[in-house]
Structure formats: structure tokens, C-alpha cells
Task: inverse folding
């Protein structure tokens, strides 16, 4: 008896989930993937900042003010660090020929706390000799290592963006969801409030909010304050967009079904309405992180944010206020480059996410 | 059309009242006032400070202060700047004028460059012009105002072609009117270009994609089918519709422009409203901070109003709403 050809199991493909489809489309966008890779790298480095940085952020030495960048070079099979000595004139340094010190890895140095709770003093690299500093990006006016401060600063600058986005978007989504779902009086009040916040130019609002806090606060308080201020400004635009989406989702049949099943209003908003806005929210969040990072930079640059001797990219940029510094010691602009790279990476990733989330364009 | 204008104008009043109320509330949360720092001064008796506080109504609850302030504002009096020791009205309007000047020239530069470039990129889609424009746009969108302003200062210092910050030379008072004019322009160019740069990239990208969308529309194909020249098709048929969404963006971009002006003013020492806000904040001259925030909001709201009028003028459908 002839048998029919057996059905090949391998050919029957499981349909991909929406998230898998999204991931497939995203993978095809090389620039977005590059942006994502840069961000993963930056955030990993920020996480291990204390370990990778050869010095602490407040390790200063007036003898090394405006010391030029020192890069290790290969001598035989060892990496060695050259020595500079003071030359003629202020802040002029001269390379000392044939005077080097080998670079060591996993060397003991300034004490710090890894992940801010494991006390240790092991650093990725260093010379262990104060006369042979490893200033990869040079030193600032107080003789502090710019590279180390850049890493410590990235902990503050990069985390403020993520935490700020998380708080303001969560709040904005919930408020927007409530506003759109209930509409009527609640909606009117919330939307007028949003309009009020959005009609003040952001930086003017930031300064009046800053005015409401005392001038002298601990560094932790200032950090929290910056997040509160930036979140206060950010939630309004999010709430408005989510409200618009909720208004149209409310009329959909699956919401009607959920209501017919007797689900509570809160559950309908959180479980049925908000998940439908996620693809928009993720794209908007990625594209908004740079504004939060820049918010910290501007506040600290203007002297009302993170204070010395703490390191953040904004406070480091204040050194460049003096144009002669920038002309003579261009390495002081390193935090500016870091800001640019971070913003560019977020824009690359955000653009890719937007294209990948847009199923209609396929 | 007139009912539309009136409606929009009436809409502004509660908004500005709300903004001033909010900033006043925030100000009242701040610990201490301008006279707190004077308490350390042994030459000023506590009675004098009490008297001064009473004179400026600083000893009363914030809502009473607000009523006094509002009464003064409505009669065109911005009060007295405690830090500058001069009436705040002239100070604010002088700074407001400077901010307006800076923002206005930045707008002219941004739109004057972005629109033609956007049209060019759209008409020559996928050519080297288009690629170069989109690259510039992407980089331009990613360079924050603060970095651009710092680089511009460095550029001015390194080349000596432009003054390093400020709005006028130290010899300004001794110049002839013509020289004074050129001195102002000379100081304005660099900050205006810095402020325009970030706006420019966004407008250019938007112009390009809008025009590409309209060029695909059926009425454009119909116009081409009637044998009209390509220039005529783009200019007369596509462009006006493509401009429409841009006028909406014009309203939105004003908020970013004023925030950008705040940064540029503070970095490049341009004596505008943003710089005054920071100076007043540092001096704890709280009324002046409120005045500045309200004036900046008013500038933004009026700008948005003009954007709405432009939109209504360009698109008759809007007027009917």
C-alpha cells in the first residue's frame, strides 16, 4: 500500500512572537546595533568605574596641574609609562627620555568601593609609583586624573538618565492612562496641568524648581534632587501622548470585553491599556534619555547641580569655561566628547527601535 | 478668523496666571530670602531687615505676596530688583529684548538654511547632496547646545574673528551709531549660529521627509501628467502642503529654542533673560526669578500664538475648528 509522504515536522515553523519579530527587524539595522553596543560598553565601564580608573575622583596633586596625557607604550614585551618633568614656565611639562616604569595590572592603589559596597583597592592598571602617573586623558587644573574622573562622572551622568526616565515615564504612563481612560473632569484637570508645565521653557522651570531646594545639600541629596527635578518636567509630555492613545484604545472591543468581565478600572488600565503603548514608550524613552543626561550636565555646569569635588560630566566641563584652558589643554574637553558619543549612541539606537517598531512601514 | 484669534488670546490668560502661581509657590518653598544673607552683616540692625522685609511683603504668606505681585504686574510694574537696586521693569524688558533678538536671528538662520537645504535634499533624493544633508542633520541633532556653545567660544578665542562672549564691546559708549550697530551685530553672530544649529538639523530633516511625502501624492502626479514643469510642480503644488506640518513644528521648536537660548546666554555671556534668571537665582532675588520665568513663558506663548496664526493662514481647514 502506498503511504503518503510523512509530514515533515521540521518544516512547520512556530509563528514568531511580536517581540521576536521586533528583535529580528532591529538586528538588521547595523547602526542601531552599534549604538546599543556602545551603550552596553559605556554602562559596563560605569559599573566598574572604581576598578578601571587608576585613581580616585578626588585624588589631587598640585604638582601635576594640567599634566599632558600619558599613554603607556610597548618596550620589549612590557607596557611602560614614560615620565614627564616640569619644564620652563607654568604648567609646561617635558618628556624625560629613557626614564620609564613598567605598567602593572591588578595593582593596589587608592581605596574605593566596588559597586559602592565592596571595599577594595585593586585597580585594573597603574604604576604604583607617584612619580610615574598614568594620566590617559591628562590632568585638570588641580592635578586630578581626567580619565578617572570621567569614569566616576559617568556613574552619575549615565545613571541619572536611566533613573529619571524610569520615574517620569512610569508616572506619565499611569497619569496619562487614567486621564484617557476616565476622560471627563479628571482628564481636563490633568491635561491643563500638563499644558501648564509644558508651556514653561524647560530650563526656566528647572531653575525655579531648583530654587525650591536649599542651596547646600549633601551629594546624595543633590543627586536625588536632580532626578526629581528632571522627572517633574518629563512626565507631562509622556502623559499627554499616552492619554491620546488611551482615548482610542478605550473604544476597542477587548477593553469592552474586559469591562464586561467585571475587571476593575485600575486593572484594565495597567493590564490592558498600558501594554498597548509599550512599543511607543520604549522608543520615546530611548530618544529622551539624552535630554536627562544633558539636564544634569547643564545644572552642574551652571553650578547648581553636582558639586566639587564629586565628578560628573557637567561639573568637569566647567573647567573649559576658561577659553585659554581649552586652547592650551584640549584634553579637558574629554567629558564633552563622552557626552557627544553617549547622545549619538542613544539617537542611533532610538532611531533603529522606532523603525523596527513601525510595522506598517515593512 | 477673528473668533479664532480671540479664542487663542483668551486661552493665554489662565495659562500665564497658572504659571505665575506655580513659580510663586515654588519660590515660597525656598528657604530664606534676599535679606537672610544681610542678617550676618553687623552694620544692619534686625529691625532694618524686618522693615525691609515688610516693605517687600516678604514677611507675609506666599498667596498674599502673590496678590501684591499680580496687582503690580497688571499695572505694568515689575517691582524693584533687590539685588540690582533698580526698578525691575526696565531691567527685564532690556534682557527680554536681548533674548528676543538672539532667538529671532537664530530662527531666521535656522529656517533660512534648513528649508532650502531640505527642499534640495528631497528633490535630489539619494544623491550626494541628500546623503551629506542627512549626515549633517544626524550629527547636528546629537551635538548638544552646551558643547556647541563651548566650542564656539573656543573658536572665537582661537581665531580672534569674533568677540569672546558679551553683547557689546567695552568701548561701546564711545562709538558712533553706525559703529554701535556693527558692534552689536558682530557680537550677535556667533551665539545666533550656535542657537540655530540644533534647530536647523531637525527642520531640515522634517522638510525633506514632508516634501518627499507630498511629492508622492496623487495630485502631484496629476500636475505632472498635465505637463507642468517640475519646478512649477514642486513650488506651486507640493511645497505649500509640505510646509504645513512644519508650521506646527515651529510652535514646538520655540520651547526648545528658549531653553537653548538659556544655555547659550549663560555660556556665551549674552545678557538675556536666561542669564538674568541665573543671576537673580544666585542673588536670591526671588521676585526677579518669578518675573523672568513668567516673561519667558509669555514669550513662548506668544510665539506659539503666532505659529497658530501662520498655520491658520496657510491651511484654511484649521480656521473652521
Result:
Amino acid at each position: 500500500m502506498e503511504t503518503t509522504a510523512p509530514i515533515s515536522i521540521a518544516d512547520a515553523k512556530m509563528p514568531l512572537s511580536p517581540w521576536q519579530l521586533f528583535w529580528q527587524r532591529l538586528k538588521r539595522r547595523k547602526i542601531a546595533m552599534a549604538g546599543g553596543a556602545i551603550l552596553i560598553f559605556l554602562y559596563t565601564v560605569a559599573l566598574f568605574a572604581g576598578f578601571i580608573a587608576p585613581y580616585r575622583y578626588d585624588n589631587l596633586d598640585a604638582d601635576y596641574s594640567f599634566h599632558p596625557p600619558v599613554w603607556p607604550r610597548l618596550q620589549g614585551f612590557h607596557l611602560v609609562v614614560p615620565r614627564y618633568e616640569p619644564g620652563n614656565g607654568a604648567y609646561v611639562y617635558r618628556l624625560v627620555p629613557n626614564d620609564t616604569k613598567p605598567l602593572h595590572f591588578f595593582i593596589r592603589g587608592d581605596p574605593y568601593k566596588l559597586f559602592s559596597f565592596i571595599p577594595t583597592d585593586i585597580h585594573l592598571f597603574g604604576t604604583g609609583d607617584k612619580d610615574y602617573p598614568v594620566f590617559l586623558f591628562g590632568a585638570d587644573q588641580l592635578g586630578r586624573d581626567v580619565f578617572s574622573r570621567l569614569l566616576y562622572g559617568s556613574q552619575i551622568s549615565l545613571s541619572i538618565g536611566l533613573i529619571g526616565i524610569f520615574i517620569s515615564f512610569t508616572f506619565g504612563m499611569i497619569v496619562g492612562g487614567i486621564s484617557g481612560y476616565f476622560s471627563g473632569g479628571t482628564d481636563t484637570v490633568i491635561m491643563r496641568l500638563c499644558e501648564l508645565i509644558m508651556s514653561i521653557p524647560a530650563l526656566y522651570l528647572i531653575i525655579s524648581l531648583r530654587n525650591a531646594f536649599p542651596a547646600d545639600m549633601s551629594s546624595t541629596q543633590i543627586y536625588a534632587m536632580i532626578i526629581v527635578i528632571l522627572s517633574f518636567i518629563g512626565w507631562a509630555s509622556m502623559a499627554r501622548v499616552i492619554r491620546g492613545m488611551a482615548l482610542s484604545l478605550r473604544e476597542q472591543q477587548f477593553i469592552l470585553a474586559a469591562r464586561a468581565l467585571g475587571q476593575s478600572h485600575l486593572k484594565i488600565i495597567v493590564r490592558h491599556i498600558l501594554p498597548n503603548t509599550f512599543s511607543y514608550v520604549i522608543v520615546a524613552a530611548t530618544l529622551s534619555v539624552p535630554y536627562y543626561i544633558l539636564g544634569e550636565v547643564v545644572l552642574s555646569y551652571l553650578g547648581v547641580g553636582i558639586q566639587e569635588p564629586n565628578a560628573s560630566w557637567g561639573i568637569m566641563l566647567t573647567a573649559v569655561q576658561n577659553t585659554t584652558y581649552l586652547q592650551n589643554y584640549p584634553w579637558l574637553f574629554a567629558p564633552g566628547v563622552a557626552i557627544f558619543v553617549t547622545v549619538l549612541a542613544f539617537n542611533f539606537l532610538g532611531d533603529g527601535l522606532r523603525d523596527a517598531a513601525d510595522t506598517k512601514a515593512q | 478668523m477673528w473668533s479664532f484669534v480671540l479664542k487663542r488670546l483668551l486661552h493665554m490668560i489662565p495659562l500665564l496666571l497658572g504659571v505665575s502661581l506655580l513659580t510663586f509657590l515654588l519660590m515660597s518653598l525656598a528657604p530664606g530670602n534676599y535679606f537672610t544673607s544681610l542678617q550676618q552683616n553687623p552694620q544692619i540692625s534686625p529691625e532694618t531687615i524686618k522693615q525691609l522685609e515688610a516693605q517687600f511683603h516678604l514677611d507675609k504668606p506666599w498667596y498674599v505676596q502673590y496678590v501684591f505681585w499680580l496687582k503690580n504686574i497688571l499695572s505694568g510694574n515689575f517691582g524693584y530688583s533687590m539685588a540690582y537696586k533698580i526698578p525691575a521693569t526696565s531691567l527685564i524688558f532690556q534682557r527680554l529684548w536681548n533674548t528676543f533678538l538672539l532667538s529671532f536671528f537664530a530662527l531666521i538662520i535656522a529656517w533660512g538654511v534648513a528649508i532650502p537645504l531640505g527642499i534640495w535634499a528631497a528633490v535630489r533624493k539619494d544623491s550626494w547632496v541628500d546623503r551629506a544633508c542627512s549626515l549633517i542633520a544626524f550629527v547636528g541633532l546629537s551635538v548638544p547646545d552646551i558643547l556647541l556653545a563651548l566650542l564656539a567660544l573656543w573658536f572665537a578665542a582661537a581665531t580672534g574673528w569674533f568677540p569672546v562672549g558679551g553683547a557689546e564691546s567695552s568701548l561701546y559708549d564711545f562709538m558712533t551709531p553706525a559703529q554701535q550697530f556693527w558692534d552689536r551685530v558682530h557680537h550677535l553672530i556667533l551665539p545666533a549660529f550656535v542657537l540655530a544649529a540644533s534647530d536647523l538639523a531637525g527642520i531640515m530633516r522634517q522638510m525633506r521627509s514632508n516634501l518627499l511625502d507630498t511629492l508622492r501624492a496623487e495630485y502631484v502626479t496629476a500636475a505632472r501628467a498635465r505637463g507642468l514643469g517640475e519646478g512649477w510642480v514642486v513650488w506651486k503644488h507640493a511645497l505649500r502642503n509640505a510646509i504645513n506640518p512644519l508650521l506646527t513644528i515651529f510652535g514646538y521648536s520655540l520651547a526648545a529654542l528658549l531653553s537653548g537660548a538659556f544655555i547659550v546666554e549663560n555660556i556665551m555671556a549674552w545678557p538675556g533673560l536666561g542669564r538674568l534668571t541665573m543671576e537673580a537665582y544666585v542673588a536670591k532675588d526671588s521676585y526677579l526669578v518669578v518675573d523672568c520665568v513668567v516673561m519667558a513663558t509669555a514669550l513662548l506663548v506668544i510665539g506659539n500664538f503666532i505659529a497658530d496664526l501662520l498655520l491658520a493662514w496657510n491651511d484654511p481647514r484649521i480656521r473652521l475648528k
About this structure: Strands of chain B lie at 80-81, 86-87. Residues 177-215 of chain B form the longest helix (39 residues). Chain B touches chain A through 47 residues (CB under 8 Å).
